[in-house]
Amino acid sequence: MRLVHLTFLPLLFAAGCAAVAPEGSVAPQTGATATQPATPPPAAEPSTPSTPQPVPAAAPAPLAPRAAPQAENKAATPGTKTPTAAAKPPAASPPPSTAVKPGPHPAAATTTPVAPPALDLAALKEQLKETKAIGVFTKITLKNQVDDLLQQFRDYYQGKAKVTMAQLRRSYDLLLMKVLSLLQDADRKLAAAIVSSREAIWGLLADPKKFATLEG
Amino acid sequence: MINRTSACARTLFVAAFFAVPSFAADDAALKKDMTSVIALQGLPCGQVVAVKVNAENDYACSCKDGNRYRVYVNAAGRVVVEKQK
Question: Is residue B38 within 8 Å of residue B45, measured between CB atoms?
């Protein structure tokens, strides 16, 4: 009987050690997460993608290059965020360093963008048609109001209307504000594209020759 | 036979369970759309709380502030908002 005890006791101890071993193996894992901060290189690596990130952000820019600088600005801050998001799995400590690093970049980006906005009316129109941020009836109503404004411009250039250019500008601004108020929460990308194209569109409307080509 | 019936009942129950929220979502979207339309016309409403479908592209809307409107698309393709008494 004692022999049995003697043979089984070491086995039980061994089993106990085996049971402890996984805990030990878990502990290194936590250690790994703790040591991962000590491996900022992987965290720093995501910071390098932050430079290519503007590329996808600038991808929608074909709409309006002026949106590209905005996108760059956005990409500069989200760029800092995404590396942190990417760095989150490793640990929370490296992100601050990565977040601090891109800091100067946005400042440089905000100073540089002076590129003139290129307008892609067809794309904007298509995006407005396809956006789910605005309901069907609202879209029809907006289209009606756009048509009314275009008619006002037509009348103005034909000398029929008594409105002034300032009044037309006010109407244009109000209409754009309506569109933006509908889009800004649900489709920020399109709202940003419209904001960046605002002056370009006005340029088309305010110039009789350009307006005539728009009509044609 | 009993198994088939119970399976059918389960399927119907699941379908109903998922269908109700989708109807609710559609209804909410329609109310939001009508609220936007009325606001775009510059009419007082606040928020549309009930929408009744009169016909295709023809709705009767009740607003939170008590106003009632008929919203429809006329033959010219324009959205018309008529105040109801």
Answer: yes
The shortest C-alpha distance from B77 to chain A (Å) reads: 8
- The predicted-structure confidence for B33-81, as pLDDT tens digits, reads as follows 999 999 999 999 999 999 999 999 999 999 999 999 999 999 999 999 9
Residues of A in contact with B51 (CB under 8 A): none
| Interchain contact, A138 vs B33, CB within 8 Å | yes
Q: Rounded to whole angstroms, how far apart are CA atoms A154 and A208?
A: 9
- pTM for the model stands at 0.56
- Supply the ipTM of this predicted assembly: 0.74
Dump pLDDT digits (tens) for A85-125. Answer: 333 444 334 444 444 444 444 444 445 555 545 667 888 88
For chain B, the helix, strand and coil percentages under 3-state DSSP, each to the nearest 5:
45, 30, 25
Residues on chain B touching A140 (C-beta within 8 angstroms): 73, 77-79
d(CA B5, CA B14) in angstroms, rounded, equals 14
